[in-house]
Amino acid sequence: MAVHARDVLDMMQVHSSLRAAVADCGLVVGTTCRPGLYRDGALTPRALAPHILAAAEANRVALVFGPEDSGLSNEDLRFCHRLATIPTDSAYSSLNVAQAVLLCCYEIFIVAQEEEEVSSSRPLAMAERQELMYEKLKRALLKVGFLHGDNPDHIMFALRRILGRAGLEDRDVRILLVMARQIEWYADGGWRLHDGEGENP
Question: Which domains does the chain possess?
Answer without folding.
Answer: 6-113 (3.40.1280.10), 127-195 (1.10.8.590)
